[in-house]
Amino acid sequence: MEKGTLYGVSIGPGDPELITVKAMNIISKCKYIATPHTGTGDSLALSIVSQATDLSQKEIMLLEFPMTKDKDILAESHKNAAESIAKVLDEGEDVAMLNLGDVTIFSTFAYTMDQLLEKDYDVEVIPGVTSFCASASKLRIGLTTMNDPLHIIPATGIDLKEALQMPGSKVLMKIGRSMPKLIETLKELNLEDNVYAVENCGLENEKIYNSLDEFDENMGYFTIVVVK
Amino acid sequence: MEKGTLYGVSIGPGDPELITVKAMNIISKCKYIATPHTGTGDSLALSIVSQATDLSQKEIMLLEFPMTKDKDILAESHKNAAESIAKVLDEGEDVAMLNLGDVTIFSTFAYTMDQLLEKDYDVEVIPGVTSFCASASKLRIGLTTMNDPLHIIPATGIDLKEALQMPGSKVLMKIGRSMPKLIETLKELNLEDNVYAVENCGLENEKIYNSLDEFDENMGYFTIVVVK
To answer: What is this model's ipTM?
Structure first.
C-alpha cells in the first residue's frame, strides 16, 4: 500500500484568519489531524483551527509533548509522536500536524519530521505567519531598517545581556519565567526606549505594550518582546 | 467625509496559496490596490495576487520605488507614494497596499505607513509568510534549535564575516550582487556544511540548493541563504 504524507502545517499566531489558503486546503483534505498537547487542558492549535473550519469529522491525534527541559523525556516524546504518526501513514492515510506560528521557528515539528524523513516517509512543510511578524503588525512597526540585521532570540539558556547588545533589532521569544530578568537587563542597558511587547497576539486576551513602563513581570508565556 | 483605511497587506513569498485568508478578504473588499513598482516590467506582487483572485474590477495604483540606494531619491518616492495613497483615503476609499513576504521585514511599507500615521490616517497591517520561513519549509529544515538565536541578515552594507560568526542560525537576505563575496566568506569560515539556498521560492523558476557546491555566483535577487 502506498504510504501517506505527513504535512507540517503552520497555522499562524492565533487569529484564525491568519491561516494561509494552503494550510486550510491541507487540513480540509486530511482525515487525521495531529496536534501537540502538553497534558493540561485543550490544544490551543486545535482551538484556533476549529474556529476556521469544522473538525468534527476528523480523527484527532493528541501528541504529548511535556513542558520540560529534560532531554531524555523530550526525546522519548518525539519518538512516540513519530511512531503514532508513522502508524497512520503506513495505512495510507495523510496526517496534518498543526503548529502554532511557523513550523520552522521554535516548533517541535522539526524533531518529528527528522525521524520520519530518516525512515523515508514523505513529508511536506507548509510555512505560516510567525508570532513575531504578527506582533510587529499589531504594533504597526517595521522589524528591520535598510541594512540592519534582525535577531530572533530565545530568552532562556542564553546570555541576555550580550544578546541585547547586538547591532540591529531584536525579537525575544520563549520568555516565560525570564521576564523579570529581561526587564532588569533592558533597564541596565538603557534600552527603555523603543521596547514593545504583544501578549497572546491574535487571541482573545491579546494585550499590547508600547513601552517598558507598561511591562509586567507576570506577562504570559505567549509574549513577544521587540527591541528596535 | 470619513477617511479610508490603508491596509498593509503581506502576500507571502510567491505561491498564491500562501496568502492568508485575512489578506484575501481585505484585497477583496478594497477597490484600490496599491503595489510597489520598480519601473521595469510588471509588478510581481500584482502577478501573484492575480493568480489567487480576479483583479479586473480594481483600481490599480503603481507606486514607483526606484531600485537605488540614493537616500534622497528613496525619500522622495516614499513621500510620493504616501501622497497618492492619502488622496484616495481622503475620498473615503480604502487602499490595500501589497507587499511580498511579510510587511514588517525589509519592506518599503514601513516608510509609507509612518508618513500616513503621522497625519493621523488609519493604518492596519496584515502579517504574512516570510520568504525565509517558506524557504526553510521547502528545504524541510528547522531554522532554530532549542536555545539558539536566529539572525536575519541583509547581505549588503554589513560586515559579512562578523555576521556569519554569530552563534546560532543565519538567514541571508537581499543578497543580489553580494553573492560572490558571500560564497567566498562562507568558504573562508569553513561553513560549507549546512549551507542551503532557495532561489525564487514559490515562483515558477524556483530552485533549491542543498550545499555550497551547488551555489552559483549568478543566483538571483530573490535568493535566501540559510546557514545552520
So the answer is: 0.94
